[in-house]
Design a protein that fits this description.
Length: 216
């Protein structure tokens, strides 16, 4: 049994009437899935995307699926859940992570960077419309293929000036860049193509449609 393991929820799958499979990212295990028992009619709020949990992990020698027990939420993430815009960004970020990180994948430092990014988004009071763009740039770097202007050139098209500004901006400057909704959506598509190319996967992120509507 591994105690005090921190987990970031990426997604979940219904397993039985009283159980779910929780797809997570952790410092110790990288991307891994766990069986979690849930009571009938019990609240699932703890397992929303990007929730940061603490749990005891019990290995099963007969199965690749370990069990997570004694689960508790480490952070309430009130702002992330109550703000429609932040919640939409959270859904997008969790889907990107879920679709681009394979089961068993481990990258040192990735969990801590993800946790810091989630807490930063939760704490921002304004000017977070560009947050997901900064997240995608930093995510590529966390995976080991830091984007440069030269690397993004084959994907950039007419968005090259805006991408150049993003790459040259600090975190705070990125949030304040004056981008239209159309520009923001094109850049998100470009960065997803770049990450998908280097991750060797097709990132068909459905929640991007919601961001397009909200931040139009």
């Amino acid at each position: 049994m591994t105690g005090n393991t921190q987990l970031i929820v990426l997604s979940l799958t219904k397993f039985k009437d009283n159980a779910i499979v929780l797809h997570c990212l952790s410092r110790e295990h990288g991307r891994r899935s766990f069986i979690v028992n849930v009571g009938k009619g019990g609240s699932m709020a703890m397992f929303l995307p990007l929730s940061i949990l603490e749990a005891d992990i019990i290995e099963n020698p007969k199965s690749q699926l370990a069990r997570a027990k004694n689960i508790s939420a480490l952070y309430p993430l009130y702002s992330l859940r109550s703000d429609m815009y932040k919640n939409s960004i959270a859904m997008f970020l969790s889907e990107v992570l879920y679709r681009s990180i394979r089961d068993g994948f481990y990258e040192e430092g990735l969990f801590d960077w993800c946790r810091g990014s989630i807490l930063t988004l939760d704490s921002l009071e304004r000017d977070f419309s560009n947050f997901h763009l900064r997240f995608l740039l930093e995510y590529a770097q966390a995976l080991g293929f830091a984007p440069s202007l030269e690397a993004l050139l084959p994907f950039a098209g007419d968005s090259l000036p805006q991408i150049k500004s993003l790459l040259q901006s600090s975190f705070t400057e990125t949030l304040l860049l004056p981008l239209t909704g159309e520009q923001r959506n094109r850049i998100a598509d470009i960065l997803l193509q770049y990450i998908g190319y280097h991750s060797e996967c097709s990132l068909n992120v459905q929640s991007l449609k919601v961001l397009r509507e909200i931040f139009a």
